[in-house]
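Session log. Operator J.P. requested a structure for one protein chain; no other inputs attached. Running the standard single-chain path with token output.
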Amino acid sequence: MVEAGNPLLSTYNTPHGTIPFDKIKVSDYEPAFEEAMKVHNQEIQKIAGNRVGATFQNTIEALEYSGELLGKVSGIFFNLLEAESSDEMMEIAQRIQPKLTEHQNNISLNETLFQRVKAVYDSCFVIAGLTRNPLNKEQSRLLQMTYDGFVDQGANLSPEDKEKYRTLSSQLDNYTLNFGQNVLKATNAYTLLLTNESDLAGLPQDIIDAAAQKAKEKEKEGWLFDLSAPSYVAFMKYSSNRDLRQQLYMAYNTKSVGGDFDNRENIKGIVNTRLAIANLMGYKSYADYVLRKRMAANSQNVFNLLNELLTGFEVAAHEEYREVQGFAIGKEGKSIEIRPYDWSYYSDKLKDAKFDLNDEMTRPYFELENVKKGVFGLATTLYGITFKKNEKIPVYQEDVEAFEVYDKDGKFQAVLYTDFYPRAGKRGGAWMTEFQGQEVRNGQMVRPQISLVMNFTKPTANKPALLTFDEVETFLHEFGHSLHGMLADTNYPSLSGTNVYRDFVELPSQIMENFLVEKEYLDLFAVHYETGEKIPQELVQKIIDATNFNVGYLCLRQLAFGFLDMAYHSITEPFANEINRFEYDAIKPTIVVPVVDGALISPAFSHIFSGGYGAGYYSYKWAEVLDADAFALFKEKGIFNKDVAQSFREMLSKGGTEDPMEIYIQFRGQKPTTEALKRRSGIK
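Structure written below.
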């Protein structure tokens, strides 16, 4: 592939054709993008200029398989921009993103190309009619998706409106890119350095050791805390210094508010540009534009779900608040109003008092290496797949590990990368992504290369990485996404693995979390990192008993994000509001703990403003309804039941080749309801 000196443009002589990260230099990216766009343009010109009449094979399939090189280069660059970024890479992104947007617009607004797509669409769906459609189900799905993709990106617009679309889409990409970069920079910019040992009151020794190590890495004396999840969450949960908790809370909840990394104008730019695009396409709101291609179908169904869950869980949430409030007053011996920076501290103490359970009791049983065996082992038990570490596969950072995945018959299934620890170049949170998706190309099966990226507690000089219960749950969640990718078995890359409706994609991940409160599962891997003793039965029972602790509060917190997302994306007039007031009004029905002036969700709400969940955050609760309903079948038949697991695997393997509700009903035998979720939560 041209330019042998650029590893991004060469054939990879590595195990399974994996990416030679060790050979790629930052300076390789821009020339690789330029060459890949050039190659893709040539492929598009060949399809559009074909003198043979348009067919599914010479137009729709040809389009589907075009752009392979560009997809490869983009996948590597943008994945590393999230996981192993640098100022230089951010600058490249600023230069290359407008070119990529223009490149995509040149394809989607190519009138000759669209007429060929439309000709195939009309011949199969309009003229022939569905009863005589010559395509199979997967081909039909690809045709519909390809046609809709062109229409959604302006193919049916007038020449004047096409130019408007070009401008708007370029603006939107710029706003979202800036938003994400600002959040990362703001996160990295803040540290809390403590030099008085008295300020560490309440913190477990593991957390203190980790903070000392962070300080040492920064060549500082003392204990350093930052806004990465392991550091922030632990401090808020354990520190008995209320003033410092408030200080750290405000730092976390004013990220990208003011200063060099302010995102408030980016928010206005994003929501107004999305609205303008939706209006251009004939829709009143961006939510209307997006949701017609979701299981929810429309805004009303989303609000119905959010409001039904609000009604079902709000009484429990406020009872939980009163209980924590009363506990705090009793503990302090004086009147105290619980604020957001108090919630984790006092609710964790209450949980310990009620159930004799806290993270420090369970953490010794969740040593990362054992947890990996447990998570991988669950996939082996359910689906027969196995994992083999291969140190010959290049990785992009020294902490990253690479595994070969094999099916039960020994057939190669996938490559899985795991990236567990926080660092300056990695954004917060946890996610699954892929460097290569599954597909059948030129008659040959291409297996996926999947990556799991997280931000877990690092090992210290004295102890290995010991995870909290929540971190293990996060691992299982993201691993569920990776299974969706690794078990994919379709023909076309854009219908493979996690390429499904946004409100279906969280089902395979969230269902995995259910196993963590099953004793039968915990007994398989949860052993003390020093003694090898299995997690005691009484501790397992405490975990089970505490499963629904603060379930109402946690539900309303998720609903707050969902309502806020829908508020931004249901507007029908350009956004000119003051963000603080707008946010408060949106989440007001869900507020349990009194809010703090100045604290905001929106400026760092990456999911909806730079992460693809715009008008889609509700999908976490939508999928929770699905996963509770689906896991009820596992509970009924046995959590390791081979028949149920095989049926679930078949659902995962289909990716986006069928309507997700139809796939779900094939698995479950019925449409989902909220009843299983309420029962699981102890609400009903």
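Operator note: The first strand starts at residue 191 and ends at 194.
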